Amino acid sequence: MSGGLRIVHCFRSPVGGIFRHVRDLCEAQAAAGHQVGIVCDSSTGGDFEDRLFAEISHLLALGVTRTPIQRHIGPGDLASAWRSFRIVRRLRPDVLHGHGAKGGAYARLFGTALRLTGRPVARLYAPHGGSLHYDADTLSGRFFFMLEGLMGWLTDHLVFVSDYERRTYLAKVGRPRAPASLVYNGLRAEEFVPVRTAPEAADFLYVGMMRDLKGPDLFIEALAEAGRRTGRRLSAAMVGDGEDRDRYAAQAAALGLGDRITFHAAMPARRAFALGRIMVVPSRAEAMPYIVLEALAAGRPLIATAVGGIPEILGASSPALTAPSAMALAEKMVLALGDEAAYGRAMPSREALKARFGVEAMTAGVEAAYRLALGEDCSTMKPSIKGMLGR
Description:
- It holds the Pfam family Glycos_transf_1.
- Its EC number is 2.4.-.-.
- By secondary structure, this protein is an alpha/beta fold.
- Helix content is about 45%, strand content about 15%.
- Strands 3-2-1-4-5-6-7 form a 7-stranded parallel β-sheet, with helices on both faces.
- Strand 6, helix 6 and strand 7 form a beta-alpha-beta unit.
- The longest helix has 17 residues.
- The model has no long low-confidence stretch (mean pLDDT about 95).
């Protein structure tokens, strides 16, 4: 990309995969000579996220600005949108990159408003699942997909993190009016080093947000069922924060697992991986979850629901895939415990993962999307990067 750009990433909640994705992009873009900033919600996240912000803040020439941004559409949106717009306008971006439904809406609306003042802002949107998780047969789903269609008129480029996400957009919203790219999430080289399992590690491990979409309740019920089937007192570690954490602790106690499931606050994923021998990703819906990539790169065997882009990571015929139900998860848990070494050998190799899901490919694909959105000449791009565009 010719010349340094002023890039602002806009998203709502600084937790989970979106936050990880943005941090990686910010680090790479700052290293490439761009001035980068973040605008996001101030009411979500905790001490762990504060530490993550502190780790990258010195790289961000445009800084980190946090302001209250509510999750659902409502009257408070007008005030939060106006506050956010004033922040973005002050940053004078060349590129507004919105992540998730709310961040994507803000970035495109703000970019359009700035264009009316004569500033040629590129407006990019990465759904990361977001509103695409809604059921197309519900009133709320139809409403959000209608909004997505209308926002398409204000979009210069769409960035999908999985082919599943791209296909879901086509089915629920329609063919994008703007060019689109498929750019997989990517990991840094040091993340492909195996993590040693702690001597006192639990049988199973859950790492993620404590909300029903991610399936902690399914994980707890599956652990109880797997214990009944094997006749063993199985143990688990659950790592993550969220407003529903107390409800899951109560569920564990009600099932007689209160002394066998240990709850931990959010922590770096590689530290969490040492706490359990077999990772379980019980999500009801996903786009392209980092936690699956991180666990496999660290050498942790896993069980995962076949939702979103997860089969694109593991392979459609992987024995690790199962349905998002407690009984199906329990069946895989029993299978994995039967011969843990053999189950581990069925996971994708780290070499194959690194070739496809490296951070270099991710940042190059996003940068190519910026160039195209800004109307720059893309003829000199590598063929591998050209292949990401226009899908």
